[in-house]
Design a protein that fits this description.
Layout lengths: L6 E6 L3 H20 L8 E4 L4 E6 L13 H4 L10 E8 L2 E4 L4 E4 L4 E8 L4 H12 L6 E10 L6 E6 L2 H8 L1 H4 L5 E9 L45 H4 L26 H8 L1 H4 L69 E2 L2 H15 L3 E6 L3 E6 L2 H4 L4 E6 L6 E7 L18 H14 L5 H12 L5 H16 L2 H18 L4 E8 L5 E10 L1 H6 L6 E8 L7 E8 L5 E9 L4 H14 L6 E5 L3 H8 L10 E5 L1 H12 L2 H12 L3 H14 L1 H8 L22 H9 L8 H28 L6 H14 L3 E6 L4 E5 L5 E5 L4 E2 L3 H5 L4 H9 L14 H7 L20 E3 L52
Parallel strand pairs: 4-10, 17-27, 18-21, 21-22
Antiparallel strand pairs: 1-3, 2-3, 4-7, 5-6, 8-9, 8-10, 11-15, 12-13, 13-14, 14-15, 16-17, 17-20, 18-19, 19-20, 23-24, 24-25, 25-26
Helix pairs in contact: 11-13, 12-13, 16-17, 18-19, 19-20, 20-21, 23-27, 24-26
Length: 927
């Protein structure tokens, strides 16, 4: 800064307009004051920094008089520099994001570029300046500008679109009207495709021939501010979408169009293409009009171009479009992203009306605006801004169907929104259950058990809105219907699905039970049973155990899924048979067990484990069904028995004693626990004695249940099917098919590998035998009869057991119960040099395990190759349909098994005694 022996005055101001005015006024005042003096010093006015203006004066000659008109002439030698630019921080290579109170700019490759924009800059000059500053290709990308605009109420901001000179003036004036010192300008680039500025979703470029000659239609109404071409399959509005019976509240929106019916309506696009270079105004050419108001004489009013953009590459050679066909179109995929940050454009094509609706919803959600439906039919869709009357917002969209197709094309559009939202709502009107369903389809495919809370969280993360529980639940139901079909129709399609499965997998068993009604060729569904051929063959090599259980369906229709499962030699579940029934009762369980006996297995001596459901108890005791002893043996699940006992007596100590009695392997231990229970509560012993002891006590079982005391194997698969139980029945059946195939493939490979490595037994038995061999090494053996194989074995705990090798019997009972030798028998075998592996039952061998899973499932043919079903139409009974669309009420009978046991009891904070709290404390008043 040059040093002058002069008077220095500092002026501070923020606005460029105020700064200029203040400088000028100060300059005049100083000039008048010093004009009477004979100071010979000239003066200099300059800017010290952005906020402080320093005025240095030295007059070179005295001034007598002056006038404002000759002020510049008299001071022509004076250097006067004032602030003429506004600092702007530009953000690009990212995406603008809006929160509840702020607007931010995010992106992995986002760039910040400070710029000084002249205060007299026009919108077109700003566009050119940004292009040159950011090196964005103007031939490929259009710019979308938004500044961070402050609201008067609180420290909140919202985006303000910059689209013309007026909005640019308002942005630059922020430094004058607010405390903002640097303006933040968010730049989003939008790829230009053909005549379209930017697509919402993946739009379809219209490829047309250049040999059409269609007269320009005359439009005098529509959502666009200027007439636009109508892109229907025919130029006539009446053929495309003007259906008075389907359209509501259109208000004279449609007009007749005079177009030769033999000419293609796409021909009008050819006229636009031919005139493209004439319409385009180059921003780089000298002496060209780069304003926002080009010459109206050279402007085709149907053109959708922004005139600061050059023509797009795909339209530079229009003559090469002769061979383009409509089959080359790429439909828009709404599920990928939908709205990509730009505006709709005239001529934009969508694969269907629903795709266009989803795109409009996503556009509105991203812009935090709302619209209303003016008219909607199969052929027409008209939308307008919700605040059109309140804020005079011009946003409006009109689209019509392309004749003889499902495509929808935007033929009129006025945007973007100019309305301002004064507040930020938690929910959005356009974020409805249909859009939620489209969003969560992939999530439902990956996880059937997707919760409503997870859906709400996913929507919140995706769009920033908190939807209601009901909307999330409705969206889930709609997504399920879109992915897996209608619930009612699935009962009708179920017979043909079974035919398709039997076609590729012969030997499957399917049994129906329906009820005839008065409607011809229609029957009401009651039961259906199915079992796959690999399961039927594999069960022959499993242990003779079968666990049966039922579970609820949670879809649109109520019902029960009955499951029968076996157990392989590796102690893994083996799915045997399934049935869908109306309810769980004596009839359904009797029918289910009869189907298993007649269609799946004729094996005798099968041990059936279940809960104490009255229908199961009645069916197992019915001699006509083939499940009474000695054909089969019924056993009760210990877990359900203990739960019933706990519900009756509500004593955890007694419950634990009942479990110990049930798990006792010897009668001595069983009697000991029962005696203890009788001492505590004699009524509890009477309750247990009323149940036949062989049904629930392992010591009295006779080796029928192979140590399996519960129906957990059925419960495990119930949890696997938990998500599928809310799906249509056809999907549920297919899921059982593919889940079983997955089990067979994985376990068949394990069995083959163990056979190849010469492993004799399954991993489960190998682990059990290794542990018992270790225990046998520390036992004392006394031989009594080497011919009969009588031994006396004493363990480390000084407990003695008697065993007979010839009869494969030990007084500990474990050999008989589990089917492989106990540690006492292994010790006796080692003493006599006998291979103890001879006492392992054949179900545990690797060969049996492989044979269990050796059968193959075969892929199902395509649906169009399935055999035709010529039977009656199956419909679900009305009594099974759930009322309303709310969340299904759980039909499970909750008991103490559903309650988590407390690790510590409640302790009073006053008297420090357990069993109560300070509210119920008897000593509350005393303490």
């Amino acid at each position: 800064m040059p040093q002058f022996p002069s008077t220095t005055i500092e002026l501070k101001c923020r606005s460029s307009h105020q700064r200029q005015l203040s400088l000028f006024r100060a300059f005049l005042l100083l000039f008048v004051s010093f004009s009477c003096c004979s100071s010979p010093s000239p003066f200099v006015v300059f800017v010290a920094d952005r906020d402080i203006v320093v005025v240095l004066l030295r007059f070179s000659y005295p001034f007598g008089g002056f006038s404002l008109s000759n002020l510049e002439m008299e001071f022509s030698g004076v250097s006067f520099m004032s602030v003429s630019t506004i600092p702007v921080i530009c953000y690009y290579n990212g995406q603008m994001m809006r929160t509840k109170t702020d607007v931010t700019y995010e992106g992995r490759e986002a760039v910040i570029a400070p710029m000084d924009i002249p205060i007299e800059c026009t919108f077109e000059e700003l566009i050119g300046l940004i292009y040159s500053k950011t090196n964005i290709d103007k031939r490929r990308f259009r710019l979308s500008l938004n500044c961070k605009y402050p609201l008067r109420s609180g420290n909140r901001f919202q985006p303000f679109p910059i689209r013309d000179d007026s909005s640019l003036r308002r942005m630059l004036n922020l430094v004058n009207t607010t405390s903002i010192e640097e303006i933040e300008l968010f730049i989003e680039v939008v790829r230009v495709k053909g005549l379209l500025n930017k697509s919402v979703g993946g739009h379809v470029d219209l490829f047309v021939r250049d040999n059409y000659n269609v007269a320009q239609p005359d439009y005098d109404c529509g959502p666009s501010s200027s007439p636009v071409p109508d892109i229907g399959a025919n130029g006539d509005d009446e053929d495309c979408a003007d259906d008075d019976e389907d359209v509501d509240n259109e208000c004279n929106e449609n007009t007749d169009v005079e177009v030769d019916e033999h000419e293609s309506s796409f021909g009008y696009f050819t006229q636009i293409l031919e005139n493209e270079h004439e319409i385009y105004v180059s921003a780089e050419a000298p002496c060209c009009d780069v304003s926002n108001h080009p010459d109206e004489d050279t402007l085709d009013e149907s053109s959708p171009f922004n005139f600061h953009l050059p023509p797009t590459p795909q339209f530079e050679h229009v003559g090469n479009l002769d061979n383009a066909v409509a089959s080359a179109w790429t439909p828009w995929v709404p599920h990928s992203s939908g709205y990509c940050g730009g505006e709709f454009v005239i001529g934009q094509v969508f694969n269907s009306k629903s795709d266009l609706q989803d795109a409009a919803k996503i556009y509105s959600i991203k812009a935090h605006k709302e619209f209303i439906v003016v008219a909607s039919s199969k052929k027409l869709l008209v939308l307008r801004c919700k605040k059109a009357e309140e804020c005079n917002c011009p946003w409006k969209l009109r689209a019509m169907v392309v004749k003889d197709t499902s495509l929808f094309v935007i033929n009129k559009y006025a945007g973007p929104h100019t309305c301002v939202n004064p507040c930020f709502n938690r929910d959005h009107h356009q974020l409805d259950s249909n859009l939620v369903a489209t969003h969560i389809k992939s999530l439902i495919k990956a996880q059937f058990t997707l919760t409503t809370a997870a859906i709400q969280a996913s929507v919140m993360e995706r769009w920033g809105y908190q939807i209601s529980y009901k909307k999330a639940l409705d969206g889930k139901h709609k997504a399920i219907r879109q992915l897996f079909g209608d619930f009612c129709q699935s009962y009708t399609e179920l017979p043909r699905l079974f035919l398709g499965i039997e076609q590729s997998n012969p030997g499957c068993v399917v049994i129906w039970k329906t009820c005839e009604i008065n409607v011809p060729n229609t029957e009401i569904f009651q039961h259906v049973f199915w079992s796959f051929k690999p399961s039927i063959e594999g069960f022959k090599h499993c242990r003779p155990i079968m666990s049966i259980d039922g579970t609820h369906l949670y879809g649109k229709y109520k019902g029960k899924l009955l499951i029968a499962m076996g157990c392989d030699g590796n102690n893994q579940l083996f799915l045997l048979a399934f049935a869908l029934t109306e309810d769980e009762n004596t009839d359904s369980w009797g029918w289910f067990l009869a189907c298993i006996r007649n269609g799946v297995t004729k094996r005798t001596g099968i041990c059936v484990i279940s809960d104490r459901h009255p229908g199961i108890m009645a069916a197992m005791s019915d001699p006509d069904l083939g499940w009474a002893a000695p054909s089969a043996y019924h056993r009760i699940c210990m877990r359900h028995l203990a739960s019933n006992f706990m519900t009756r007596f509500k004593d955890k100590i007694l419950k634990n004693l009942v479990c110990r009695a049930a798990l006792a392997t010897t009668e001595r231990k069983f009697n000991k626990h029962m005696h203890t229970i009788g001492k505590i509560n004699s009524e509890a012993v009477q309750w247990l004695e009323a149940i036949p002891v062989h049904l629930w006590a392992l010591s009295h079982d006779g080796g029928r249940r192979y140590g399996l005391m519960t129906t957990n194997i059925s419960e495990v698969f119930n949890s696997v099917l938990k998500g599928a139980r809310c799906l249509p029945v056809t999907t549920l059946v297919q899921l059982t098919f593919f889940r079983l195939n997955g089990y067979f493939v994985a376990r068949r490979e394990v069995g083959a590998n163990r056979l190849a490595s010469a492993e004799q037994f399954t991993p489960y038995v190998d682990a059990q035998l290794q542990g018992r061999v270790v225990k046998a090494g520390s036992m004392e053996i006394v031989l009594f009869d080497h011919v009969k194989g009588l031994f006396h074995v004493k363990s480390r705990r000084c407990r003695t057991h008697r065993l007979n090798l010839h009869e494969k019997n030990c007084t500990c009972g474990k050999t008989l119960i589990y089917g492989f030798p106990c540690s006492h028998m292994i010790a006796a075998c080692q003493h006599r040099c006998v291979d103890f592996r001879l006492f392992v039952e054949g179900y545990y061998s690797t060969q049996s395990y492989y044979n269990t899973w050796a059968s193959l499932f075969h892929p199902i043919f395509n649906e169009d190759e399935w055999p035709l079903y010529d039977g009656p139409t199956i419909v679900p009974p009305d009594s099974l349909q759930r009322m309303g669309s709310r969340r299904p009420r759980s039909t499970r009978l909750h008991n103490e098994m559903d309650v988590r046991e407390e690790k510590t009891s409640i302790t009073c904070g006053l008297c420090k005694q357990p069993g109560h709290n300070r509210r119920s404390c008897l000593n509350r008043n005393q303490l």
